[in-house]
Amino acid sequence: MSNIDKEETSKIYRRACTIHLVKKPQIHLNWAAFEERRERLEVAREALDHIDRGMPGLIAITLRRAGIERRSGNMAEGGNILKKAVEDSSEKETRGFWAVKYVNYLLYLVKDLEAAKTFLREEN
């Protein structure tokens, strides 16, 4: 990958995602991962926000957004993304999925047992 011009690759991803493949989530995920490896987190967030506006509610996009925030050290924002996913869920199964993801985030990543307990009490 050292022979590939990274700036040109970034331009190709941008053009593909914003013009040609607007409704293809996988190319947006690839673009975000590429930019995150280059430590261009704002561009990675932009890629995920772009597909999220066009196709809201995709699980993979929400999980990747929370992951980017976690890996960048922004634990609070990562938790907020997951908590918002719980709140925005209308179906019981989807809400349960997001609740488990959020509680695991609180327990294993943030290491805040009390916040996890409080959230579970409020959910019931």
Keywords:
single chain; 124 residues; mainly alpha; 80% helix; elongated
Topology:
Elements: H1 6-20, H2 25-37, H3 41-54, H4 59-71, H5 75-88, H6 92-110, H7 113-123
Helix pairs in contact: 1-2, 2-3, 3-4, 4-5, 5-6, 6-7
Q: Can you describe this structure?
A:
By secondary structure, the protein is mostly helical. It is built from 7 helices and no strands. The protein is elongated and about 50 Å long. The model has no long low-confidence stretch (mean pLDDT 94).
Number of strands: 0
Shape descriptor reads: elongated
* Secondary-structure element series: HHHHHHH
Mean pLDDT: 94
Which segments are poorly predicted (pLDDT under 50) over 5 or more consecutive residues? none
As a percent range, the share of helical residues equals over 70%
What oligomerization state is this entry in? single chain
| Rg over CA atoms | 16 Å
Number of helices: 7
Major pleated sheet:
none
Q: Give the helix/strand class.
A: mainly alpha
Strand content: under 5%
| Terminal Cα span | 50 Å
